[in-house]
């Protein structure tokens, strides 16, 4: 079972995290931007974990987890339109839970206590990788990207998650795809941190996905159930998604 951890020398947060990992685990370092990478740039692996910065207009300090891909025709941030990377719900959720646990252990530290820990929805490149892929990110400005404590939290969480998956040291839970809500998926983040589900792909309200993409969501991840944030999803999209799930024999639930 091979994990490839990927760091860019052009990314301050990426270098920060990598510096805390390299003593214990090999890191694939590149001079390219992470979002410019494709399958051809990387060594073959069973799992890809990108160590990355997160940028937002609000500049809110954050620690985030998400699988990359383009849910629609929009590929403004690289990759191919309507293409998503494979996803492992266990990997994504263990990363989120370990980040939250390790973040809480730093909570008395004034430098770190204002951070949000959350999933993000599927977005940006790369899109063409052939194995489960996830980004772990420090946001949202240079001040946070270089913060030693943030790098330590992500690094420790990545190493703990790899160990848990390699040793199969995790409980069995329903592996879910989430539909609806905002970019930081607050409802699905909460359910994951409450140990209710393992979440993989998360599709926001603002992305109305086609059947082509829906097929990728169920074929590039082991899916037990689809959860719909009922109030956070447009009626026309709910109907389309439910019709698709029922046609494919996939259980769904409103939350």
Automatic annotation (TrEMBL):
Q: Which UniProt keywords apply?
A: Hydrolase, Metal-binding, Zinc
Family annotation (PANTHER family): D-AMINOACYL-TRNA DEACYLASE
Its name, as the record gives it, is D-aminoacyl-tRNA deacylase
As for family, the record states: Belongs to the DtdA deacylase family.
Taxon lineage: Archaea, Methanobacteriati, Methanobacteriota, Methanomada group, Methanococci
Family matches, as Gene3D superfamilies: AF0625-like (3.40.50.10700)
EC code: 3.1.1.96
Matching entries from InterPro entries are given as: Deacylase_DtdA_archaea, DtdA
Q: Give the record's cofactor note, including how many are bound.
A: Binds 2 Zn(2+) ions per subunit.
């Amino acid at each position: 079972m091979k994990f490839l951890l990927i760091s860019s020398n052009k990314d301050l947060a990426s270098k920060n995290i990598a510096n805390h990992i390299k003593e214990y685990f090999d890191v694939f370092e590149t001079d390219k931007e992470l979002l410019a990478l494709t399958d051809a740039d990387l060594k073959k692996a069973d799992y890809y974990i990108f160590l990355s910065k997160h940028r937002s207009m609000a500049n809110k300090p954050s620690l985030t987890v998400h699988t990359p891909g383009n849910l629609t025709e929009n590929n403004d941030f690289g990759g191919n339109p309507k293409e998503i990377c494979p996803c492992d719900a266990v990997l994504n959720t263990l990363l989120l839970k370990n980040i939250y646990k390790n973040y809480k252990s730093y909570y008395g530290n004034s430098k770190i206590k204002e951070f949000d820990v959350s999933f993000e929805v599927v977005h940006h490149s790369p899109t063409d990788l052939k194995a489960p892929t996830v980004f772990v990110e420090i946001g949202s400005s240079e001040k946070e990207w270089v913060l030693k404590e943030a790098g330590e939290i992500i690094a420790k969480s990545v190493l703990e998650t790899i160990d848990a998956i390699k040793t199969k040291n995790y409980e069995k839970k329903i592996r879910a795809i989430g539909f609806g809500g905002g970019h930081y998926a607050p409802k699905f983040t909460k359910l994951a941190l409450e140990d209710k589900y393992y979440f993989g792909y998360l599709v926001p309200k603002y992305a109305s996905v086609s059947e082509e993409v829906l097929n990728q969501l169920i074929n590039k991840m082991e899916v037990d159930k689809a959860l719909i944030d009922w109030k956070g999803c447009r009626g026309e999209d709910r109907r389309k998604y439910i019709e698709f799930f029922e046609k494919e024999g996939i259980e769904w639930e409103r939350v």
